[in-house]
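Much of our argument rests on the idea that a fold can be written as discrete symbols. In the encoding step, the backbone of a single protein was reduced to a row of integers, each denoting a local shape. We regard such an encoding as a compact summary of how the chain folds. The record that follows shows the chain in one-letter code together with its fold in token form:
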Amino acid sequence: MRCARRAVPPVLLTCLLLAGCKPDSLGTSTSSESRSPVAGAPGTAASAGAGRAIAVGAGPQKHYTVQQQPAAGSCHYRTEHGEPLEDPNCTPGAISPAVTQANLTSTICRKGGYTSGVRPSAYVTGKEKRLNAASYSYTGRMSDAEYDHLISLQLGGDPNDPRNLWVEPADPGHKQGTGVNNKKDPVETKLHTAVCNGQVTLAAAQQAIVTDWTTALTVLHLN
């Protein structure tokens, strides 16, 4: 019986109570319910700790194809602690669904290595690098710039998602024509070691590197 709150005589109130209506429910609705998004639903991004969510890419493929890059001139480098960083609007990062905290020993931490088996061919990345250089208006020597995985493969980054790749300029002071040499690579290696040693979680390392690789080790107390 549906009950409505109103001034009722004592006799009628007694009848209502006997019929199953409780005094504290008179005039209230009991049919409403709250709904929340389903965590991990298809197409959603993966949460990586307290920071912003990181997109999930397609993961390793048997055959990689050249991915469409952002429009020419639409991406802009930024500088933190004297180092060039990616444009988060163009390169927000993407992780591989094939690498999880539960399977580290069979993926990025396995003996014999992991990255060589999932890395796209130079044929594919070479074309993407030239297109991405136009996206970032990069005009330096291509041989001095790295087509970099923002979240490295050794940290479970997606191998060929355009959201996870960018033309990383050489460090300030780098001698032109001497090839790729940047300070981000050692940071990635230290984070990989920390993840495999159980010092930090995979998600924490991914979040730190995608936020600002120049502060990643400090934020995770790995300096």
User: Anything to note?
Assistant: The mean pLDDT is 82. The longest strand covers residues 146-149.
